Automatic annotation (TrEMBL), chain A:
Gene name for this UniProt entry: eif5a
CC per GO annotation: cytoplasm
Family note: Belongs to the eIF-5A family.
SMART domains, per database record: eIF-5a (SM01376)
Protein name per Swiss-Prot or TrEMBL: Translation initiation factor 5A
GO molecular function, one term: translation initiation factor activity
TrEMBL record, chain B:
Entry note: cofactor: Binds 2 manganese ions per subunit.
Enzyme class: hydrolase
Gene3D superfamilies referenced in this protein's UniProt entry, alphabetically: Ureohydrolase domain
Record's protein name: Agmatinase
Gene: speB
Length: 125, 284
């Protein structure tokens, strides 16, 4: 599984973290300032990279969390059929089918950039 | 201690109660840092069963998340408190906030992003700054309405409300009354609140946030608050307003309770919060 462990304190807005077994992009990170009691806790808010679902996590800053290693890849559209497109990975020349995002308009030979993690792909707009 | 009857686990909660013992900008009598615990304490005697709604408080899936202890950097604290409250919103629960000074309402509003802010308050809280501080408790309604331009980290891009209704307001500076004259603010004087409630028919499908500043009540009923203002609302008048508005709310708070009385202010705040939960749950 392409992921690594990091301490919560190493996370920052814009980076990725696993929440509820889903890779999420962090859009808010804040830390409570402890007084005499308790350890500093961070509140992390993120959005699923592939499902767009908002999630939230609260952990001590020295806790370990999983960070997904998400690859950013280049592909070329081979053909478009309805809402699906055949896309060729420009590194491996592997061809796969992906759903055309609602706000995108694919045409054959067009180069696209996408994120890939464990067989899930998402076009970078 | 936990708020009496708030027995639900976090993952099954419909309502998440969070204490925010902020006591940074109180201008006359301090003590709001003791508000959350005091409200919990004086709610201990209330019956679980509510006859009007035929429901038990402990069945309504209320979770007490404890307090978010405050620290000096107001900006940072409000950001963190907002994130804590937003976690409840993300999980489809309604955040209930226990103040703390009124400034914490801005975190509640930012977390729940309502269209309308309804406050029960003796004061307009529409100052742009008080003692040079735009995050003073005397400015909270202005922040919710007009935002906070000097926030560099987010470009001042905080959610704001489209409209404010202040129930029971009876004092303010000339500048505040001038801001209140704009069409996006409705001020309902204490003597008119009963009529307002009687005619209230929701906000046309828009979502509201209810903030109960305990000084909206007459200080004879709730002396434990920082800036007492006579000629206020009776507890029953506030209760009826809470019953009417709560079903339309995406977030609710009770603020400005301190420890400078024998528990009257805390008892009223706790009872009003329970009324809000009963009413909100009953309308679901």
């Amino acid at each position: 599984m392409p992921r690594e462990q990091k301490q919560v304190r190493e996370l920052q807005e814009g980076s990725y973290v696993m929440m509820e077994d889903s890779p999420c992009k962090i859009n808010a990170y804040s830390t409570a300032k402890p007084g005499k009691h308790g350890s500093a806790k961070a509140r992390i808010e993120g959005k699923g990279v592939f499902d767009d679902k908002k999630r939230s996590l609260s952990q001590p800053v020295d806790a370990k969390v999983w960070v997904p290693i998400i690859q950013r890849k280049q592909g070329q559209v081979v053909s478009v059929s309805g809402n699906d497109a055949q896309v060729m990975d420009l590194d491996t020349y592997e061809t796969f089918t992906m759903r055309v995002p609602e706000d995108e308009d694919f045409t054959p030979d067009q180069n696209i950039e996408y994120l890939e993690y464990e067989g899930q792909r998402k076009v970078v707009g | 201690m936990r708020f009496p009857g708030a027995n639900a686990d976090r993952d099954e909660a419909a309502y998440v109660l969070t204490g925010a013992p902020l006591d940074a900008t109180t201008t006359f009598q301090p003590g709001t840092r003791f508000g959350p615990e005091r409200v919990r304490k004086f709610a201990a005697t209330y019956d679980d069963y509510d006859r009007r709604t035929d429901s038990f408080f402990s069945d309504l899936r209320v979770h007490d998340a404890g307090d978010v202890p405050a620290w000096d950097a107001l900006d940072e604290y409000l950001d963190h408190l907002t994130a804590e409250l937003r976690a409840a919103v993300i999980d489809d629960a309604v955040p209930f906030l226990l103040g703390g000074e009124h400034t914490v309402t801005w975190a509640g509003v930012r977390a729940s992003d309502p269209d309308v802010l309804v406050t029960v308050d003796a004061h307009l809280d529409l100052r742009d700054a008080y003692d040079g501080n735009p995050l003073s408790h005397a400015c909270v309604v202005r922040r919710c309405l007009d935002g906070y331009e000097s926030d560099e980290s987010s470009g001042g891009d905080h959610p704001t409300v489209d409209e404010v209704v202040v129930l029971g307001a009876r004092t303010g500076s000339p500048e505040e009354w001038e801001r209140a004259d704009a069409p996006d603010v409705t001020v309902v004087a204490p003597e008119d609140v009963t009529d307002w409630v009687r005619e209230f028919d929701g906000f046309g499908g828009r979502e509201a946030y209810l903030s109960i500043d305990i000084d909206g009540a007459d200080p004879g009923f709730a002396p434990g608050t920082g800036t007492m203002e006579p000629f206020g609302l009776s507890p029953r008048e506030i209760r009826d307003a809470v019953r009417a508005v709560a079903p339309h709310c995406v977030g609710i708070d009770a603020v400005e309770v301190n420890d400078r009385d024998d528990g009257q202010a805390a008892a009223l705040a706790g009872k009003l919060l329970r009324e809000a939960v009963y009413s909100h749950a009953d309308a679901r």
